[in-house]
Specification:
The protein is built from 25 helices and no strands. It is mostly helical and 444 residues long. Helix 5 runs parallel beside helix 6 and helix 14 packs parallel to helix 16. The protein is elongated, with a radius of gyration of 33 Å. The chain starts with 8 loop residues before the first helix and ends in a 9-residue tail after the last helix. The C terminus is likely disordered.
Length: 444
């Protein structure tokens, strides 16, 4: 391509020659005849390799909508080289915004347009951070952004964050929005309750007096067990409160004080609710044979939580092998219909859920077409919460998703084993029929 520097003018003006040179290196266009700089295809070939090359082309070409649309699709920040008129073109700027929200900084006039910013935050909520200060006080624009990315509240003025009606709507969209509420609103029970009802972990941002409230903390634990970590220390060392919490979800034991983690009654109550809670018990209990015998009789999986010196204990192994499935695991699922199997998996994953909680979970799964365990497994392997959110349904907590994955995996293994056993049993009578045919020569 460097040969163009010494080539005769006819070659430098030959479109085919210049195009071939540009394919080799974008700088070849600078060695071509000036008239070539008005060729849109040649300029695009050079600029797609080096977007800042657009600074060298004539203003008329940078005002070409066709060229700039192709450029922002490849390099959204190349919007800065577009003509002033095109940087006011809403569709072009949105095209760049879809690929990089920072490209909006090169459209200063549109950043002050309410109608445009309303469309922009629907494309990418981060666009709110580049809006004019006046528009960052607009409740409708802010709510549109928060619905897609709750942390956009960080860019909202203090007046809106102190507005009761606005923050109630914000925490209704995403409970964690409570993080950006004013100190006064974090003390209001109604606001905190609305936030916790949407996301249990919003308890982290509640006022201290509400984190000391047993009913408020239990409400959060029912939504997300990890919310127990944000309860006040006075509750984490209260046996009565922690006993209620582990009955909601055994994993709430993670929030108990060190002394309570050594209490066998509390640990056993947690294990009955969720066997995985045993990992939060103190080492002395997990190495105690008598206690572990009680635990594995509740659930044989507790054996995996025992200390290493008990793993091969014959008494403990025998107790784990004798464990029978609890009758409650089959409750409300007398038949093997797909609905009953799904109900059973939900119940095993969240033993602390009431019947109304289970019915609500079944209903919202049905909205997205998940009506049996195999369909639930497929949804979990892709994006279950994404599908629920798109359908306008409440999403599952991270703990619930983890438990559902574990239960679905166990169900799939059990189903495969049952199918194999059924196939073997079906084949067995046929083989016996062939070998038990009467034969006078084989009489024993």
């Amino acid at each position: 391509w460097r040969a163009l520097e010494h080539a005769p003018p006819s070659f430098c003006a030959d479109r085919a020659v210049v195009l071939e040179a540009v394919h080799q290196h974008h700088a070849a266009l600078q060695l071509a005849c000036p008239s070539v700089l008005y060729d849109e295809e040649l300029v695009f070939e050079a600029a797609k390799r080096r977007p800042d090359f657009l600074r060298l082309v004539p203003e008329s070409l940078r005002g070409s909508r066709g060229l700039m649309v192709k450029m922002v699709k490849l390099h959204p920040m190349s919007l800065q080289y577009a003509s002033e008129e095109l940087r006011c073109d809403e569709d072009l700027v949105l095209e760049a915004l879809r690929r990089n929200f920072r490209s909006l900084q090169h459209a200063p006039l549109l950043r002050g347009s309410r109608s445009f910013m309303l469309r922009a935050v629907q494309v990418d909520a981060l666009a709110l951070s580049l809006a004019d200060e006046e528009l960052r006080e607009d409740p409708q624009i802010v709510c549109e952004a928060v619905e897609r990315e709750w942390e956009m509240l960080e860019h909202v003025c203090q007046d809106l964050r102190s507005n009761y009606a606005f923050m109630m709507e914000a925490v209704g969209i995403e409970g964690l929005s409570l993080k950006y509420a004013s100190d006064e609103l974090r003390c209001q029970r109604e606001v905190v309750a609305a936030a916790i009802g949407n996301s249990g972990q919003a308890l982290e941002f509640a006022a201290l007096e509400l984190r000391r409230d047993p009913e408020m903390v239990l409400m959060a634990v029912r939504q997300d067990v990890q919310a127990i970590l944000y309860a006040d220390e006075s509750l984490s060392s209260d046996f009565g409160f922690m006993f209620r919490a582990v009955r909601v979800d055994g994993l709430a034991l993670m929030g108990a004080s060190i002394d309570l983690r050594a209490d066998p009654d509390l640990i056993m109550a947690a294990v009955k609710s969720n066997w995985r809670a045993l990992k939060y018990a103190c080492r002395s209990l997990r190495s105690n044979l008598n206690f572990m015998l009680q635990a594995v009789r509740v659930n044989s999986f507790c054996l995996s939580m025992a200390m290493e010196d008990l793993w091969m204990n014959p008494t403990l192994l025998a107790a784990a092998a004798e464990e029978e499935p609890p009758a409650s695991s089959m409750e409300a699922a007398p038949t093997k219909s797909p609905d009953a199997e799904l109900w059973q998996v939900l119940q095993q994953a969240r033993p602390g859920w009431s019947e109304s909680d289970l019915q609500a979970a079944m209903q919202k799964l049905g909205v997205i077409g998940v009506t049996n365990v195999p369909l639930l497994s497929q949804a979990l392997s892709s994006d279950l919460n994404g599908r629920l959110r798109a359908a306008g349904q409440k999403i599952f907590t991270a703990t619930t998703v983890m438990e559902l994955k574990a239960r679905c995996a166990a169900f799939n293994v059990a189903s495969a084993a049952a199918d194999a056993a059924a196939a073997e049993a079906a084949a067995l009578p046929k083989s016996r029929g062939r070998t038990s045919r009467p034969n006078g020569r084989l009489a024993f």
